[in-house]
Design a protein that fits this description.
The chain has 276 residues and is α/β, with parallel strands linked by helices. It has a single domain (16-264), classed as NAD(P)-binding Rossmann-like Domain (Rossmann fold, 3-Layer(aba) Sandwich), CATH 3.40.50.720. 41% of the residues lie in helices and 13% in strands. The protein contains 9 helices and 7 strands. The N and C termini lie far apart (43 Å). Its EC number is 1.3.1.9. This is Enoyl-[acyl-carrier-protein] reductase [NADH].
Length: 276
């Protein structure tokens, strides 16, 4: 992914936004950030702790701009308050938000959903993967321009396991379903303010998140073989879709879950060779 060249332009020139969820160079959030930067956006990046900062800072510095990084533990109200106060003090406004944060325990991403999901694991997955989007959207929207001034745009990242049963996705699928429902309700609330809220449902990709799911490699192969395009989901496709939703090109689009998975989501039964 680090060798990918993203189309340059000025679609995001003059716009400032926060990207939450970059973990390494293979993160979907990083691919989105690179595309937004190539189109002229000014970016801020949040990180949870010092360990993540050490991984993310070299990436941010590679963009060539003055690094703007701010700590944000999405499970802590005081940390989130401080994060958005820092953004307000530095910029005064926020034009867009990219939320690409999710978490579930590794033991709960394998085997039986019914038997492996603990009360604490369920609560934690919902808090970090779904409620954090509600919280971040509320805080970000308070910094966005009025409808007359152009409003703003917010996106979250989801996956097909929210709609259909995917082996080993388990509690994360339930959390992503909550995330998608939250996207629609937030879109309803913020729509009158000129703020658009959407989700991107990306196909399987080689990310840190995918590595944490038992059987992830098989999931990727199935996604390619059964997809309509017979190809893997690409970061270029996901980043381009994010650019559309976050830029003025995406006007009139809100409350949407946009599938970017080479058509896999629309397949009912995969092609089967007739051996008769």
């Amino acid at each position: 992914m680090s060798d990918t060249v993203f189309p340059a332009g000025d679609l995001m020139k003059g716009k400032r936004g926060l990207v939450m969820g970059v973990a390494n160079k293979n993160s979907i959030a990083w691919g989105i950030a690179r595309q937004l930067h190539a189109q002229g956006a000014e970016l801020a990046f949040s990180y949870q702790d010092e360990a993540l900062e050490k991984r993310v800072r070299p990436l941010v510095e590679s963009l060539g701009d003055e690094p703007f990084m701010v700590t944000a533990d999405v499970s802590d109200d005081a940390s989130m308050e401080a994060c958005f106060k820092t953004l307000e003090d530095k910029w005064g406004r926020l034009d867009f938000l990219v939320h690409a944060i999710a978490f579930a325990g590794k033991d709960e991403l394998q085997g039986s959903f019914t038997h492996n999901t603990t009360r604490e694991g369920f609560r934690r997955a919902m808090d970090i993967s779904a409620y954090s989007f509600v919280d971040a959207s509320r805080r970000a929207s308070a910094l966005m321009p009025s409808k007359e001034e152009g409003g703003g745009s917010i996106i979250s990242m989801t996956y097909l396991g929210s709609e259909r049963v995917v082996p080993n996705y388990n509690v994360m699928g339930v959390a992503k379903a909550a995330l998608e429902a939250s996207t629609r309700y937030i879109a309803r609330d913020l729509g009158p303010l000129g703020i658009r809220v959407n989700a991107i449902s990306a196909g399987p990709m080689r990310t840190l998140a995918m590595a944490g799911i038992s059987g992830g490699r098989t999931l990727m192969k199935t996604g390619k073989d059964w997809s309509m395009l017979k190809e893997d989901t690409t970061i270029e496709g996901v980043a381009g879709s994010a650019l559309y939703l976050l830029s003025d090109l995406g006007k009139s689009c809100t409350g949407e879950v946009l599938h970017v998975d080479a058509g896999f989501h629309a397949v009912g039964v995969p092609d089967i060779e007739d051996g008769s």
